[in-house]
Amino acid sequence: MESFAARVKRELQSVTRMPTHCRRAQKAGYEIFSGERSEWFDPKKDCCIRAFIRGAFVAAGTVSDPAGSYHFEITCPDEESAVGMLSLLEVCGMEPKEMQRKGSCVIYIKEGRQIRDLLTMMGAPVSMMNFENARILKEVRGGVNRRVNCETGNINKTVAAGLKQAAAIRVLEERGILADLPDSLRETAQLRLDNPDATIGELGEMSSPPVSKSGINHRLRKLCALAKPFQGEEVS
C-alpha cells in the first residue's frame, strides 16, 4: 500500500506548469538535497522558495501519515544546506527544528497546522485536504475522549463522596442521633441513603420543597461533621 509520503511526492511531481525561474529553483532544490549538486542555490522570490522546497522534499523529504503522529522532515546533505533550509522555512512562517541522525542533519516540523500549510505551499492540495481531514478527525476524537474522561472522573468523585456521606449518616442512625436532628437534616440524610450516587443538584431537586446546591451541601457537611467523632468506633 502506497504511503502518505509517497502520495505527496507523486502529487508534487505532477506540478509541471511553472515559470522558468521556478523550474530552475525546483531543480536546484532537488539536486542539492539528492547530493547531485554541492553549491548552494539561494531563491529570492516567494514562488521560487516554494519551488525549491518542493524539489528538496521530493529528493530527501518525508511526511508521516496524519492518522498517526505529525512529522515532516527533510534530510540535508551538509551543514550549509541545513542552515539554508532552516532559513527558507522560517521565511515561510514555519518553526522548523534541527536534529542529528546517523551523521546527517534533519530539519523537521511536528506541528499539524504548519505541515498542512507546507503541503499547500509546496503545491499538494489533494494531500493537504487528506491531511487536514485526518487531523480534524483526530482532534475531534481527542476532544471527545477528554470530555468522556473528565465526566468519568466527575462521576467517580460524586459516587465516592456519596458513599462517604451515606456511611456518615449510617453512623448517626446507628447511634440514634439522626432521629433527634431537625427535619431538614433528616430529609437530606434519607435522600442520600436512598440515592448514594446522586449529585448534589439532584438531591436538591428531590427535596420538598427543592433546595439549592449550596443548601444541600451545607446539610451534608453538617451531617458528616456530626458523625466524625463516632466514625471508627464500635456501637455499644
**Strand element count:** 4
Mean pLDDT across residues: 90
Order of helices and strands: HHHEEHEEHHHHH
Distance between the termini: 76 Å
Biggest β-sheet: count, sense, barrel? 4 strands, antiparallel
Q: Structural class given helices, strands, pairing?
A: alpha+beta
The amount of helix comes to 55-70%
**Total count of helical runs of at least 4 residues:** 9
Computed over alpha carbons, the radius of gyration is 33 Å
Poorly predicted runs: none
Beta-strand share of residues: 5-15%
The outline comes out as: rod-shaped
Question: Could you list some keywords that capture this structure?
Answer:
236 residues, alpha+beta, four-stranded antiparallel β-sheet, 9 helices, 4 strands, 62% helix, 8% strand, rod-shaped
Question: Could you explain the architecture of this structure?
Answer:
By secondary structure, this protein is of the alpha+beta class. 62% of the residues lie in helices and 8% in strands. The chain has nine helices and four strands; from the N terminus they run αααββαββααααα. It has a four-stranded antiparallel β-sheet with strand order 1-2-4-3. α2 (20-33) runs parallel beside α3 (46-60), α5 packs antiparallel against α6 (125-174) and α8 (200-206) crosses α9 (213-227). It is rod-shaped, with a radius of gyration of 33 Å. The N and C termini lie far apart (76 Å). The mean pLDDT is 90.
